[in-house]
Design goal:
By secondary structure, the protein is of the alpha/beta class. It is built from 13 helices and 12 strands. The strands form 2 sheets. Strands 2-1-3-4-5-11 form a 6-stranded parallel beta sheet, with helices on both faces.
Length: about 325
């Protein structure tokens, strides 16, 4: 047989109707045991695989969920996907991945061309420049549930899962203060993102709690890459009043900062402390090792997926906002 076996093939071999084969496969009461046994014998012989898309459509489900996220090439998002997969696969669902490359235009294109008939729900982490999220609201209004994670919009009422950005930043900066650093700069993410704002506020509140200065020139907004961290640090080192510590919005920027400090022959830890945010595996490889706030990426993925299935199962499910705490990991970059 040159094509994958179908129910029609089984019916033809046994000289019974397609509907009888279908009912036998579903183990319904109105098919006798002898017929069921014969059907199963042919199923094994032909290596028949059910068409889950067809089954799903018949039941009103596709058994697919979509994931829209900025990148897959960093540790955080790849770990989030792992958490999503564990829940989705356990429930018999496949995932369909869409990557925006952190582009708002690409995000719009994906949502406008998305066939919602082929997915039962969406998990979304927005792009950096998503100042408007009406395209996601339109999808929700059309009946497809969405759960946001990590990068979440403020103006859409649906479930959201985030790490505790505010407390994480506050704890990271307070750790620097407790280790004797008093002139602390912040190389932030891109403006407009909720987690950029929360980490900035945690930084500011920690400084104000300990009566330390908040200098405008010590707060720099830019992208999330290692190169951005390096360039931001060169800008800080060009200030009239130079900082003695740097809190970075993520580990990639923190590592870029450490490279810049090394290039200027500044001893990391002793002269300038550095703290990141993520616990990327690279934070243990770089020398000195990087102090960081570990994000619960796997838990964020699994919890987001669990909430999405609640929305899929119950259309009027009351949305939840879940904040998962991180954990400060102290390493060499803040040792004086």
């Amino acid at each position: 047989m040159g094509h994958p076996a179908t129910i029609k093939d089984i019916a033809k071999i046994l000289n019974i109707s397609v509907s009888t084969v279908s009912r036998a496969l579903r183990n319904t009461y109105d098919v006798n045991q002898e017929t069921k046994a014969k059907v199963m014998e042919v199923v094994l012989k032909l290596n028949y695989k059910p068409n889950y898309n067809a089954v799903g459509l018949a039941k009103g489900h596709s058994y697919n969920i979509g994931i829209i996220l900025p990148r897959i090439t960093n540790y955080y998002f790849s770990t989030v996907i792992t958490g999503i997969q564990e829940i989705a696969y356990d429930k018999g669902y496949n995932i369909v991945l869409f990557v925006t490359n952190d582009s708002h235009e690409r995000e719009l294109s994906i949502t406008q061309n998305l066939s919602t008939a082929n997915i039962d729900g969406l998990l979304v982490s927005t792009s950096s420049n998503s100042d408007s999220c009406s395209h996601f609201q339109n999808i929700i209004d059309e009946g497809t549930p969405i759960v946001f994670f990590d990068r979440v919009p403020n103006n859409i009422k649906t479930s959201k899962v985030m790490q505790d950005d505010y407390y994480g930043a506050f704890a990271a900066v307070e750790h620097l203060i407790e280790n004797g650093y008093t002139k602390i700069a912040h190389i932030a993410g891109q403006q407009g993102l909720t987690f950029t704002k929360k980490r900035l506020q945690g930084y500011i509140d920690a400084l104000e709690k300990h009566n330390l200065p908040v200098r405008e020139e010590w707060i720099i907004y830019s992208g999330f890459s290692q190169e951005c961290g390096e360039n931001d640090t060169y800008q800080l080192l060009g200030c009239e009043h130079k900082p003695d510590a740097i809190f970075a919005v993520n580990d990639r920027k923190a590592i870029g900062s450490m490279i810049a400090l090394k290039n200027r022959n500044i001893t990391i830890g002793k002269e300038v402390g550095v703290v990141g945010f993520t616990n990327d595996p690279a934070s243990t490889i770089i020398s000195p090792s990087l102090t960081t706030m570990a994000e619960p990426a796997f838990d964020i993925g699994s919890k987001s997926c669990e909430l999405l299935f609640k929305h899929i199962k119950k259309k009027n499910f009351i949305y939840e906002e879940v904040i998962i705490p991180g954990r400060l990991i102290i390493r060499e970059s803040t040792t004086r």
